Structures are given as C-alpha cells and as structure tokens.
Fold these 3 entries.
Entry 1:
Amino acid sequence: MALDFSLGISWQFGALAVSSMLLFPYFRARYAFAAGALAYSLVDAVPYIMGYPTLGLWTLTGALSWGLVGLIFSRQKPDGSPFTFAKLGIAGTLVFDFLTGPMASSLIWGIPFAEALLGQVPFTARHLFGIAAVSLVAAPLIFPAINKRIASLQYFFLKPAPASA
C-alpha cells in the first residue's frame, strides 16, 4: 500500500485554497463571493477545455460553496497571522465540505444524509489536516508580499486600504 501525503488536497484545490484564503479578506463581500465562485469554476473549466470531463453539477455546488467561503473570509481583516489563517481555513473547509458532501449528496444524488455525513468524515478530516498544515506554513511566507501589493491597490471590488499612521 502506497503512502498518501496529499492530506486530502489536490494540487488544483490546494492552490485555489491558499490563494483564495490570502485574497478573500481584501475583497468587499459580494465580490469575494463572485471571486470564490469564479475561481472554483475555473478549477473544473480549465481541465474541461483541455479535454477532460470535469464539468458537472458538482461544479455548480462547489462554486456556490466556495463563493460562500469567500463571503465568510471577506469579513476578516487581513492580519497575516498563521493562526487566523488556519482558523479561517478550518471554518471554510467545514462549510465547503458540508455543503458539497452530505448536503449535495443527499439533495442532488439521493444518498441518505446519515450515510453521506458518515462517509464525509474521513475526507473532511484529511482536508482539515491539510489546510491547517498549509495555513501554518504558507501564511507567514506568502502574506507579507501579498499584503504589501494589495494594500497599494485601489479597485472598486477591494476594501479601502487602512490609512497609514
């Protein structure tokens, strides 16, 4: 049996999660939702364009769920703390996995809710370990550069930069 070190995160979703979590706190709420939904859709759309059958109803449920995660994250002030990053990542993972796992499985594919929830537990546990590990490592390494660059931008979809003292 081969060891799996992915911690439940594909490279596409891992890149999306890290970049999203770092950027969402800078967005105004409705734009964070739209950015999350678009970003998730691209995770499925780009491979589809390249000839892989990746689009489906799961793309819609995933996009709406990741948009909701973006909305939640947009309420956070960007502070670069790996613990804030991990807290948001864990909350976002729980929301995303619940909506795309047991909820979607029950409502769309008719899987009994209790079975879908029980089946989701090991999958979500791996996601939680993965996002916590990525959060604690990536936030302190990447946040300073992102914060410096985004704080200087003035776009309608971004929150106003704080006044410098």
Entry 2:
Amino acid sequence: MSLENRTVLITGGASGLGQAMAERIAELGGTPLIADVNDAGAQVAEHLGGRFAHLDVTDERAWQDALDALGTPDYAHLNAGIMTVPADETMAHADIVSCDLASYRRIMAVNIDGVVLGIRALAPRMREAGGGAITVTASIAGLVPLAADPSYSMTKHALIGLVRSVGDAWAESSLRINAICPGAVDTAIVPDELRVAGLPLMTPAQMAVEAVDLLANGDNGEIRALIADGQDGVRFEAPDLGLGA
C-alpha cells in the first residue's frame, strides 16, 4: 500500500495512537496533517514532514479554521478521544451515578461532538475535492459493555451507530466512512487500575497498521474490531452487531 501524494488528517495526532497513525502515514509516503489541542503536535508534524493546526474538536468554528490552514485532506482519521476520568484517577469516579457532571459533559463533547463536527466540516470539502474516506476511532467498548466506564462505552456505542447509519446514507457517495474498534491500546488514557489488572494491551504501532489499512481500503460503513491476543500480537474479528438474519 502506498499513500504517495496523499494527505491524511489525524485528530489527536500529537501522541498515542494518533502519533502512531501519523508515523505510519509518513512511512507509506503520505503527508500527515495533525490537528490537536496539544501543540506538541507541531513537533511531531515537523519531524514527519507534515503540517499542524491547533484544534479543539468540540469547537465548530475551530474546525473550519483548522481546515482552512491545512487544506482539504484525501483521508481523515477522527481519532481524538478521552475516558471519563484521567488515567491516574480511581475508576470509581467514572461510576455513572457518582461521576461529576462536568466530566460527563466533557466526554460527550470530545468523543461524540468531536466526531460529528468533524464529519460536518470535512464532508462538503472532501466531496467537492472528489471524495475519499473518513475513519472513526470507536472501541471494543462500543460493541460490548465496559462496566468500569459506562460513559466511555456509551460514546463508543454511539459512534458505531453513527458510522453505520451515515455509511448507509452515503451508499452512493464518493465519500466513505468506517470505524476501527480496538481493544485496549497502550496509550496515556488507559487507566492505571486496568494496567495493574493485567489488561492485554496492543501497541499504538500495531493499531496504526490496521487503522491505516481500513482508512485506505475499508468498505463504506465497515466496523472492524482489533484485539490484543496477549502474546505480543493482535487478532482481527468481525463484530457481531446482533442484527439477526
């Protein structure tokens, strides 16, 4: 696979999975366009021969400003996301009854609004430029329950429903949309409690290989699951969405 002469926008590209995506894109000859609220993304972009724009994904105006600065991408990976509480905070604070309202509203804004606003900003520009593809980072927690963080799981379930529905709506469009659903990836948002419990983690680089393939080659509306196998590898599974025959 080659991304020669292709530009790829990555939200949350300053670190973690987003940074690994940017590195994989550059490795394949593409130009990463990193958009992040973390301005360390500027150094990542410079190192990889890409470009950077400051972007708060929850701000509609900021989306237009970022795309004005970066240009219309050939592909986009809407990857920015958070969990309900910081990694070093007890998971008890993510309980749906006792979590504070500000934390709840923040995760809804970043994980759901950030994707919806991204699609709304990108789709008209990408269609006018001839099409392309948008991949959304969902999660295995969007396919199965995550008792430790119900709000996070809810946002990822919502993204899967959004992608499948928009995919159907875009069936005749030049623009594709799909979602990658990783298990736990070894990034800064993984809670310390889950690490101590021995949760199998895949590396961001492992995740990025599959995510870039989905972006470039995946079907419209496709939901692709990726799970660490506990033996320094990953396996791919077609998710059962419980739709019956």
Entry 3:
Amino acid sequence: MSINIRPEKPGDIQRIHAITVAAFLDAPHTDHTEQFIVKALRDSGALTISLVAEDAAHIVGHVALSAVTISDDSDDWYGLGPISVHPTEQGKGIGAKLMHAAIAALNKLKANGCVLLGDPHYYHRFGFEAMADLVLPDVAPEYFQALLLQGAHPKAAVTYHKAFSAQC
C-alpha cells in the first residue's frame, strides 16, 4: 500500500465527512460531532491545514489543524484535530503518516507549537506531552498535550476555535 499525503481539494469534502463519521462511530469519549467541527472550521475560514491520506486515489484519512488562542497572548499555536482514518484502514500506519505530515506543515508555517486532545500513549511518540502550565479548562490534564516547535512554552489556558462547539 502506497499512501500519499496531500492538501485537501474541494472535491474531497464529502469523502472527508464520511471518513470522519466512520472513524469516530464506535470511538469512546466522543459526542460524534467531529465531522461538524471540520465543516464549521472550513466554512469559517479557520481550517489552516487540511491534509488527506490517499491510497490509489481513494481518500482513507484526514487531519485538520486550526489556530488556537492562548490566554498569555502567545501566537502561532495550532490545535490538531480531528484526525481520522477509515476503520478498515486503521492500524496500517496511516495516522502516523498524517501526524508526521501535519507536524511538517506546521514547521513550514514556522508555528510555535501545537496542542491536541487525545490518548497520551499514542501521541507521545510524536513528541506531544502534557504540560502542567498549559491547560484546556475542564479537561483531564494528561489528555491535553502539546508539542513545542520553537520558542518558549506558554503558561496559560488554551481556547479552540468556536467551530469546536458545532453540533450539526
């Protein structure tokens, strides 16, 4: 299997939606709004980076990145997510390829860092770690993780774009 990672194109939107729904269908700890978040980010112009994983011209995965607000006014920080891989393709390294491509894209933007909400055991291998002084209010600190790309670690609270409240 040869996976190509590339930026989203307008014709990819329906497939991204379907993959996101399928990827989170049986996932624990979700309210199943991930597809609505991606749409709301795109519709509001807040979807900074949107990458798809393609296998023989079929999209099998997607990752979204959008700017976050840091309460100490640190700039150039982004939130990664949602990240989705079709259930039939999970466990084949596609998520890891999307993660590496997302981090490379952030480095190209000269981002200071990236935050995400997810399994610490999975995301630790990409350099993400919980930081005591960087928090997402009302979230267990071990699941809110950050990757410093350059500069200093902020000591503040993070707020995601309002699209993360999308329900439909």
